[in-house]
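Q: Could you write out the predicted structure for this multi-component system? I'm mainly interested in how the pieces pack against one another.
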Amino acid sequence: MKKSVILGAATIAGLAAGAAAAGTVDDVKARGKLNCGVTTGLVGFAAPDANGEWQGFDVAVCRAVAAAVLGDANAVEFVPTTGKTRFTALASGEVDMLARNTTWTFSRDVDLKFEFTGVNYYDGQGFMVPKSLGVSSAKELDGATVCIQTGTTTELNLADFFRSNNISYEPVPIETNAEAQQQYLAGACDVYTTDASGLAATRATFENPGDHVLLPEIISKEPLGPLVRHGDHEWGDVVRWTLNALVSAEELGITSANIDEMAAGTDNPEVNRLLGSEGTLGEMLGLDAEWAKRAVKAGGNYGEVFAKNIGEETPIGLARGLNAQWTEGGLLYSPPFR
Amino acid sequence: MTTLTDPPKEQFRLSMLLYDTRYRSATIQVIALIGFMLLAAWIVSNTINNLAALGKPVEFGFFGEPASYDINQRLLEYSSRDTHLRAAFVGLLNTLVVAVLGCITATILGVVIGVLRLSHNWIIARLMTVYVEMFRNVPVLLWIVFIMAVLIESLPAPRAFRGENPEASMMLADSVAVTNRGVYVPEVLFSNSLGDIHLFGASSLRFDVSLDLVAFLIVLGGAIWTSRWIKRRADGIQEQTGDRPVTWWQRLAVFVVPIGLLMYALGFHLGYPELKGFNFKGGTHMRNSLIALWLALSLYTAAFIAEIVRAGIMAISKGQSEAAAALGLRQNKIMNLVILPQALRVIIPPLISNYLNLTKNSSLAIAVGYMDITGTLGGITMNQTGRELECVLLLMLVYLSISLTISAVMNWYNESVKLKER
């Protein structure tokens, strides 16, 4: 109650302030720091490492935007948010953008007044169970106790899935991934359900990851992407095209290793336009010419970010799958830089 | 000879509002009130305008939409296709359940501990001091989370009950299962049930009243009335003859016989929990979130109530108990007949505020995933619909109504026990 009231009041205050405030791009530049909303901790996507530095796939998006706008990939203030508090934090102006495994849905885009700036991970909701349960399909979960993060789309998908399959379950609502992990490992719930990528990331942190399996069913489409407040289109463009720059960089073969060389000028005009040696794309965006170069340099192109944080070489071990470039049978498809 | 003349009639002039001390304070208050109301109006209109500018006008139509989420503990029939309003209603009942259970337990514990803290036994008195200080000085949220963690980590999972040589087994002749998902106890079932009355048709506020329960309450009420009548009659006989007839068996019988007959007629039996599939099925499931919240709120509030009870007892002068002892009353009679009735006058008013605190603290339920009204209306509904202002306002209204109701009831009780001045 207390928290909700404060958040509610903060929203109202933030809305009042937001109406009068200038564009977010100018705010971020004036502040010299990007406030980026992330999860409270999901290894691989956003979690502090041993040195207290935030690392992960979503964190890389924040850093790329900070590098593009401010020229410093470390000029980011990470604000941990739960599934419940994230939208209020964004709407109230506490954060400039959310990069937090947030599913792009109609009502969030239209009714909640947010602007999704693209998809950085094509995901779907899955189930994780202990191997010892001997369950091989989600349809065998009749009567199971399911841990679920409250305030997420997964909560709604779960209700629909069990309802349409005419089986029952007992939901155990929890607030953060860490709590879910504790309850799941203690056997207080049989099943943990969230986005399949989140399950893989969570399982990777278990003592014996091999004792747990992900069930084959993926029961929903979960396009995860960064989002900003509706109405501030300049800022929305910056975040959208920073993400597109990372995707395009991979497609065009620009990596953090060869970027300096390619920025000097190449035969490919699109590379030149992207990296600022030709045209005025940066200026149109309200930034300088080298914005995309800095964004890619911050953590590498999309493929490098993926491989470093959640790819097959990491303990999380996610395959590219849907998240491969369109040229390789995936869904990643950046509009052209022209 | 003197002539009496009326004093000149003073005309009211506008300047007197400021210079006449009779009116000045009222003037200032009225101006302050107008200023305050203008400020409030400005805040409200500003909020409404800004929300409208964002394209989120204040409206409550979303309450009729399907909630689309499930609630684990529901006292009413509810599915994910029901409306947000019904989800809020289910949450409200969950809040009331934990508040009522908490208030009762906290009162019992608090009175016992408060009395024991005044005990002449050094160890007991010190132990109670430790209890009070320990619970009073740690935030209740930590107690809730701590008790939940203990329940989850220390109790066996349902799968530990399975197999030839299970690690865990059920208690009390296989009727109670204590697991880390909650406690399963036998449920009361009737084979010749009288059925339910359905109230409010198919609306979101519909609920069923069990006729079995109504019949039970009627019989119980009748038994209480008869028992009182027997007591009054015995009192009358004692007044007249000096001898008190032995009535305890009559008073016991008017409870046991009719209730027993009713139970027999309804076909009373118990439904035992059984391990089926992933979980225990059957029986009444008290989820560990309810237990953790209930225990933590009760233990925490009991510490405050204990102090109030102790203060109330110490407010009664020592002469009272000495006089009662001189009349030959025993210790427990002194406490029950002399001290506590007088102490209640001191105890009740601060007790009210502790009941209110407990009810409001129950909104911390989400910390352990208990779906109270803050978890449903102020949590998932707010999150899925994005109507922060509407949900929070409504939530405030709900808590205000609950608190005012508790206050009203307790004030009425206070009227009945307070010192009668004639």
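A: Regarding packing and overall arrangement: Chain A has two domains: 2-122+224-328, 125-220.
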